[in-house]
Amino acid sequence: VFENSTDASKAVAQEIAALIQEKQKENKPCILGLATGSSPKGLYAELVRLHKEEGLSFKNVISFNLDEYYPMEPNSINSYVRFMKELLFDHVDILPENYHVPDGLLTKEQIADYCHDYEAKIEALGGIDLQILGIGGNGHIGFNESGSLQNSKTRLVALDHITRVAASKDFFGLSNTPRTAITLGVKKIMEAKQVILLAWGEGKANIVKKSVEDEVTNRVPASFLQEHNNAVFVLDKEASSKLT
Ligand code: F6R
């Protein structure tokens, strides 16, 4: 628990930088799982600063984003491809062939094979070294909504009403908000060697408490992380305020 999200984001950025550099010394790629949304924005700003001011290189980073709305044009203002380029990828030296964001332009027929290949790429690299997560108001991780199974795979999912309402401000109304998305499954998230979930503000306090202190249940997918051997919730004071 940190005093505020800025301090917390800086601490997480330091941890990521240390991991990237450790892998550089070993001449190995660093496999990062990345999230979008408001929670990691400060983290990405700090990583950009570390690159520009302190010479942190992302040349050995290979990243896989958690999710993308479906359907979604990559250049649309709401696309997670665009989000990642604007907040991170275009400002650091990651190689364009090394970042992956699920493709929102697939045909329905292509989705199953695409999702299988997305996971196969991660597996071929030995899995995700560090997975960054946010948490939805319903406890979703990625877009694994309530009811997602612990062994769920990467797939097309229907977004919960609560998720669509949260997104609707970005889409200028609920009727324009996508109903579906492609998400990394819970299984690949749980297989990551390390998981860091970020949550800020009192709006997240209830779901953080449920995820951390209540029972493990697929009604709250973030609660699965209780069973991960190297997962932490990084919180500001407000998001931690309901913890006992
Ligand atoms: C985004 C994602 C989502 C968000 C979650 C919280 O890639 O996977 O699970 O992390 O909806 O969103 P924010 O951070 O906007 O509160």
Automatic annotation (TrEMBL):
Domain Glucosamine/galactosamine-6-phosphate isomerase: 5-231
Name listed for the protein in its UniProt record: Glucosamine-6-phosphate deaminase
Organism ancestry: Bacteria, Pseudomonadati, Bacteroidota, Flavobacteriia, Flavobacteriales
